[in-house]
Amino acid sequence: MKLLQLKLLDDFRSLKNGFEVDFSTITEDDSFNPYCIVGRNGSGKSNILELLSQIFYQLELITLQFLPQYEKHNGDEIVLQEYEAFSDFGVSPDAYILIYKIKNTIIEIQKDKQKPPKGYILTSDLKEELSALELKEYLPENIVGYSSGTNEILSLPFLKMRMLQYDEYLDYLSKDIFYSSSESRMVYLDDVYAQAIFITNFLDIDNSLKESGLLDIFKETLGIENIQEFRMVINTNIEVAIYQEDEYGYYKDYKNLFDGVKSKIDTLKRCSTLYYEDKENQKLYLDFYLDDACKEVFRKNFDNSRGLFDLFKILIGLNYYHISDYTKNKLYNSTSLFAKGYLTQPPWNETFFQFRDFLIKKNNSEKLILSRSLSDGEHQFLHTIGLALLYKNTPSLFLLDEPETHFNPAWRAKYISTLKKCFKDDSVSPEVFITSHSPFIVSDSKPENVLIFEKDTQNKVECKRPDFNTFGASINKITIKVFEKSETIGDMAKAKLEEFKQRLETEEDIDKLIKEVEYTLGDSVEKILLLKELFDKQEGK
């Protein structure tokens, strides 16, 4: 998938009517070239990720076969009414044009104000409108969102879709229909999925990561040898309200949440080393010791890693069983940047599904450690590189908001090259957008793939490409040109350096001052320049 053009025809957050990005100037090739979106804090760079997520959320709404219903009352009678895709889902932006290439076809999405978006196939002499069913075939296979922080500017449409996926499950449950996977292609991989991503990659069901050497990424960088064991805990007796219909109309009934995934849980039972049913507390415990025999059973029961991860997504999504219809309705209609507060998790002992006792082997140590004991940076590496491996070789759209914030400088320097390894030899390339403050990310990006965001004097967001070759540029040059930070030292050190400069203008002993500068300041360009001034004065220049 390749984006070609994006133009706003209405205001959206800090992006104003007329905001436009032309991606078609980028030379198309088969290599992996993510878009690096940079700018100072508050420059609006995250808004473009949200804009793209909102656009594809809208396209999901018009192409999904299932939309949830909500309860209305007509006296004592219950009436179910389906949500209207563009009046009940807090949809924005209201007008735009998006053009992209997928499956060797150029697709244009156009949305006029107060109307649903329409999709067209573009050829040199034709613009053919697509039905919703036809458009569905030309959407990214997955729209993957990730954000490292508490900023929820990206998450809103994904969280709405997460709730919609839960409602889809309830609909299947009410009809006693087998539920295999969600129709929606949007997935927001926040921290609730971290352990599922970790397990899926290390199980490597189709053996592709081991054969390609990609699994070694985690060993080389983090020293993680393998997952030794873990436990799944499933609550087998959670009753949820569903709607049923008889000759008198709709009525509320209750079903066991577990029933819709019972056959899938039976599959996990077959893969487990042992399991135990606690009938008194109505919990099912599945223990996995990941030796070769256990991995082989997983391979016999799952076709590929994505199939297992899709099952984990379903099970984790059922933890939202406690969300009330009132809260759900507020979320669907919300335009708030604090929507994640609607989707609270139940107490750990009341969840439908969770991982526990997750032990890993690290750095050839005989002592096993809990996965939770890894550092924030290690978790983020497993998470962000792991999600890339899960969705490799697919025409997907990745929207990654500062995926390397917890990395040390060495890891930041290798992040793009590591991602490139993940997608190496893929027959289908994804489209990847990364927002970052890291000059290392910029230095590994071609200038045509770098988008610099900044605000003008009227607080209007502008997007431009760099006026210099970013690929291989020094960190110092990128810091000066992109972030307008010319110094290579911190503010406290800078203040001390200015103090030395002021003393240079006095009659103070130069030899003594030189020795003090040498002792006080570490090596830097600024220190070298100051010493040159001191030596020049010492020599009477």
Describe this protein with a few key phrases.
globular, 22 strands, 35% helix, 25% strand, 541 residues, six-stranded antiparallel β-sheet, alpha+beta, 2 domains
Task: Describe how the helices and strands are arranged.
Blueprint: E1 2-8, E2 20-22, E3 35-39, H1 45-63, E4 69-74, E5 77-82, E6 96-102, E7 105-111, E8 118-123, E9 126-130, H2 132-136, E10 143-147, H3 156-174, E11 186-188, H4 194-203, H5 208-212, H6 216-222, E12 224-235, E13 239-246, E14 249-256, H7 262-271, E15 274-278, E16 283-289, H8 292-301, H9 305-317, H10 325-333, E17 353-362, E18 369-370, H11 376-390, E19 397-401, H12 409-422, E20 431-436, H13 439-443, E21 450-455, E22 461-464, H14 475-483, H15 491-504, H16 510-520, H17 525-538
Parallel strand pairs: 3-20, 3-21, 10-11, 10-19, 19-20
Antiparallel strand pairs: 1-2, 1-6, 4-5, 6-7, 7-8, 8-9, 12-16, 12-17, 13-14, 15-16, 17-18, 21-22
In DSSP terms (H or I, runs of 4 or more residues), the helix count works out at 17
Low-confidence stretches: none
Task: Give me the secondary-structure category.
Answer: alpha+beta
CA radius of gyration: 27 Å
Strand content: 15-25%
Lateral arrangement of strands in the main beta sheet: 11-10-19-20-3-21-22
Oligomer: single chain
Overall mean pLDDT stands at: 88
Shape assignment: globular
Q: Helix fraction?
A: 25-40%
> Mind summarizing the main beta sheet?
7 strands, mixed
How many beta strands in the DSSP annotation?
Answer: 22
Q: Note the gap between the termini.
A: 62 Å
- Summed up, the domain count is 2
